[in-house]
Each structure stands twice: as structure tokens, then as C-alpha cells.
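note to self — DONT lose this again. spent like an hour looking for the file last time. sequence + predicted structure for the chain T wanted, 745 res
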Amino acid sequence: MTAEQDIETLDAAAAEAELARLAGLLGAANRAYHAEDAPEISDAEYDALKRRNAAIEARFPALKRPDSPSDQVGAAPAEGFGKVAHEVRMLSLGNAFAAEEVVEFDARIRRYLGLGPEAPLAYTAEPKIDGLSLSVRYEGGQLVRGATRGDGEIGEDVTGNVRTVADIPDRLEGAPEVLEVRGEIYMSHADFAALNARQAEAGGKVFANPRNAAAGSLRQLDAEITRSRPLRFFAYAWGTTSEPLADTQSGALARLKALGFRTNPETTLAEGPAALIARYDDIAARRAELGYDIDGVVYKVDDLALQARLGFRSTTPRWAIAHKFPAETAWTRLLGIDINVGRTGALSPIARLEPVTVGGVVVSNATLHNEDYIAGRASDGMPIRGGADLRIGDRVEVYRAGDVIPKLRDVDLSARPPDATPFAFPEACPDCGSPATREPGESVRRCTGGLICPAQRVARLKHLVSRGALDVDGLGDKEVERFHELGWVRAPADIFTLQARHGSGLQTVANLEGWGETSAANLFSAIEAARSQPLAKVLFALGIRHLGEVAGRDLARHFQGWDAFAAAVDAAAPAAARHRVAEEAVLAERAQAAEEGRRARISEARAAAWAEVPEAARAAWDDLTGIDGIGATLALALCDAMSSEQERRAIDALVAELDISAPEKVAEASPVAGKTIVFTGTLERMTRAEAKARAEALGAKVSGSVSAKTDLVVAGPGAGSKGAKAEALGIEMIDEDGWLALIGA
């Protein structure tokens, strides 16, 4: 396990690299767990992997990968079973590990729905069964198919095996004409113990835990083996149905129970997060008495109309969350501190530990976050661990509360070796020796070497060819490292000139160990196929700090072509430099005002700094930062990358090798297609998030600021300065009712 920077201190680039690593780990874990019933990591480890990935994506939503584990549910069906396409995707759940996250879950739902904190909002709370997800379909009341979740879209046909499970009715009376019931196959503790005793006596396989036993039993090619296994089934959801089961989640569960399914008797209704947490505490206290394995409590918005309005993310519903039980801790020895250099030059400290088992997983590394954390202080300067620093040789407490990367909770100063010395954090890059600087306001120290730093260069090349970026099939991390070591690929454009330089002769890809003519030809074909790319993917592939997939799509939608994008960033560069000066002036003014005991003149300081910026540069900057989702931080990163001689040379060389296409045009039938819209003030019939999503789906661009390029302003109560600016510029303004009428909602 390779530790990286803690989520709390990750910047966008480090987060992108970590998400790529997690995608590989979770893909392998899913295959082992769901497809092979032979998990290679514990449930705690898997849960921690999922948690870290979800947490990073929650903090950096723009960085979500196309192959993100958040977009993958389970694993592809195994060979030996027929394939079943789920009409309605079988999704997973987001996780919470602390009461604060449950409170935020409720607050997030209320914000999305536009509900105040006192508005009634009921949830169901039910134990989260640790088993195997299953879908059973009925037509005309008759069981016609049973399928595992698989990867959420395609599952395994286990109909014959499902018919042997006593808890699953073969026929329903009074059911909708089409009804797909979803739930969990599991095995009770008593049945599991009895099964293992029989298996041991017969010299057969002894299962590690009830979940593995249940999954392995259902996925037998011989249904008679499944029949001999004591499988149980709790129904808790539904997929395709020809008519609604009820108006509420609780009502639908009652309907399923009336039809003959077992539903969990521990499921209750609760109003608000305090009641949910109380229910969680109650179930946690009685966990050992339930008679079956659970790993948390699931909360769902009870009102199905609200569920429909909240909708889904890629693989998780917004209206549900799993409140998971906490992880374990353990004490061990800190053997050393290593420094890793990430793609954007971030220096990430890693603790090398004497191996110790935590939550069923052997841990030998842990994140140390940053130099402040090692020194015993938080990013705001306040002490942590009572101000105790971390030193090599210390006895430390390790915990894994939802992160795949373990953390250090505490240090035992009474066990500190007498010769232990404070750790000196490096001020030079350990890979290239360039100065490692720390910008004001940042907690991370970064190598300034850029592309001359091998660690950054290789990491950027890996990102460039990854699935979420240019997706060059056959050119993975190991191949990138190998070609880089050979000196064949040092810059992004080198990938696309590789065949011309190393397609034949002695120094050729085909002559490398493990390669051949066929594999080399396949690689070159994949590289050629990767030349044609949409603008959004090219932007993301550049690896510019803070530029994730969502931001790449927003920029592509706005500029429609590489030349327009590059010209806009070039034009904004002088303003970007002045923006930094302005913010430094603001900080200086605040400090001086505090010293003199007066009110800071922020507007004046900022205006003075911007006074000499050419109007064209200011307009370009306003246009760039006015794109909804593109703020000053990303705009600065874009200008920095495109203004750096070394970076720009590499970018231009890459672009020259690519065929870059603009985003697809939205049908012109939409009344707002191609228009730039600004939402301001309070919307009462839909939230701002809903309004933006609807506008973009109809082909509009949503901007965060009003400018001469704005076509329409939708103004609710409290429109303020944006409304005033729209009036001054003569831009059309409509209220929320007018907006809904315009789009036919």
C-alpha cells in the first residue's frame, strides 16, 4: 500500500493522481469480491477504498474519472452464467462515517429541495445487510428471472438458483403486472456456523464469513448445491414496475411485505438527523443480537416524489446514504518518513510503520498530510495532538476511519526514544533537487522543477494516457515508466511520434522484453486512434492544476475549439498577473488596517491594483472567470500553464499531433440553446442546482457573472448587483415564472 496525501490537504492535481490509483485498486477489489467470491482484501479495506474515493470526489467533483469507482457498481458478470441487462441500473450507496456527515446529508438534501431546516422531512432507517445484491423479476405475478447486480448494468442470470431460496416467492397475488424486487441474499450466523460444520465434516470448503458463503452459494452452476445452502432474502427496494407500489418508501416496503416478501423488521421512520443518529446508535448497540451481519444503517428519504426530484448521481442516489460503523485502531512504531512527489510537484510525507493489523488489514504505511501535521499543528496554526510533533521511532496510534490510507491519531510521548529528533521537512525536491516552495495560504510544499522533475513528468504522462484523458489502450503506468526510462517518451507529443521513431529497426518497441510485432502494432494502432479527441478530454489530459473533467467540459462548451480557448487564455494572462498583485494588495491592506485599528479599504486596494490592466485583458479575464464553475483559482492555473515557455512548448507540440473536435451542438429546437444565462436572486420553485442542470441540458451556457456577453438573466427576489448590472447593460431579465414558461416546465 502506497500512502499519499490526506484528503483534507489534497490539491486538485494530487487528487487526480489519487483517484487514478483508487480506480485500479477498486476495480481489482470489485472483480475479486463480486465476480469471484474470493475477496483479496477485507470488507473494512474495501469500504475504506470506496470511502476515500467518494470523499475525494465530493471535495473535487470536477475531477471525477470516466472509470471512477463511483461509476462502477459491483463487477462484470463471471463466465458460466447468462447475462441479464437491468432495465433500471442497480446502484450503490454513498457512505457516512460520522454523525456530522449525516447532518450534512440532511442539509444537502434540504438545500437541493429548497427546504428550510424546520421543514418536516421523514426518512426510513434500516440495517445495512452484508450480503449479495439480487434482483427478482415477476410478470403476471410469476417469477421469471433472478439476477445478481453484476456491474450495475449487466448481471448474472441465476434464475434457477433463486427458485430454491425459500424467502423468495415463486408467485405473487395482487402484484403489478411487471414488478422487479431488489434486496439482499444473506446467511444468518446460526446457519453459517452449521454450514461450515457440515463442510468441515465432509472435507469441503470452509467459508471465511457469512457474506462469502451466501455469495458463493447463490452463484453455483448447480442449483441443487444452492438448494442445500440456507440462504435468506430481505427485500428493500424495487426496479422496473408497471405501477407504483406506494407514495412512500415505507409504504412500498409494506406493500412488498403484503405480497409475501421478508422485509427487515428493524426498519423504522425517523424525522431529521438527530432521530436518524439515535436509531443508528440503537442498532449499533444491538448489532450482535440481530443474528446476521450488518455494517451500518441505511437512511432513505421516505417521500418517493422527493426521491424522484432528488434523482441520482452516476451510481448513487442523492436521497439515500449508508451510515457505516467505525473502523478499528492499533498502536505501532514509526520507522521512517518518506517524501513522495506528485504530478503537480506536491511533496507528500508518508509514514513507514512497523506492520500492524487494523480492522483486518495489515498496515505498513500511513499519510502524514503535510509538514504542519508532522510538526503538531493544523493548517490554521492551532495545535493538534496537544502540539506533539512526530518523530522517527515514536509509538503511534493508527486508525482507518473511512480512508483507504491510514492516518495517525496520536503519539505516545512516554515511549519516545531519547535520541529521537524533530523531522526536518525538505526544502528541495528529493527527485530533482529544485527548490520546494510553499505559497502563502497553502499547506503543501511543491517542487518548482515542473517538467524537468522526473516525478512530475512521468506522473503527467501517466495522466495523459489514462482512461479519463486520451485513453491510449495498452499504454499503462508500467509502459510509460519504461519508455520514459529508455528516453523514448519524455514529453506528451513523444507518444504520437513514437511509431515514426521506434516502429522498426533494432531500437524498436517490438524488440523489448515482453513485446513483439503484434503487441507493438496494437499499441501504435491505439495511439493513432487516440489522435482524435474531443476538446474537453484534451483539456483534462493536459494535467493542469485544478482542471478536472467537469471544468474541461465547461471550458469546451464555452469556447467550442482549441484555438478560441488558447487565444482567450493568452488574452487573459496580463489580467491574471494583475489579479495576483491585487490579492496581495488586499492582504497587505488588511494587515495594515488591523495594525492601525481601522476598517480595511478592500475595494480601493483592489481597484488600484487593476487600474493599469488593458481593457481587452480585463474583458478576457472576466469572460474566463465568468464561466460557471471556472473561478479565479482555475483561471490562474490556466494562465500559468499557457504562459510558461516550457509548458506551452509541450502543450503546443501535443496539440499539433491531435485532431481536436468541438462539443456536439445541442438541437436548435431549444429556446435557450447557445444562450448565456445568469441565475441570480432566490429561486422559489427549483433550486439553483436544478435550474443550472435544466439550462445546460437544453444547450445553454450558465455563467456566474453578468457581462455584455450575457443573453438572459433569470432574477428572483434579492437579485442585487447582478440585476442592477443587467439593467444597466440592457440585458433581458425574466423572473422564475418566465423562465419556467420559456423552457416549457
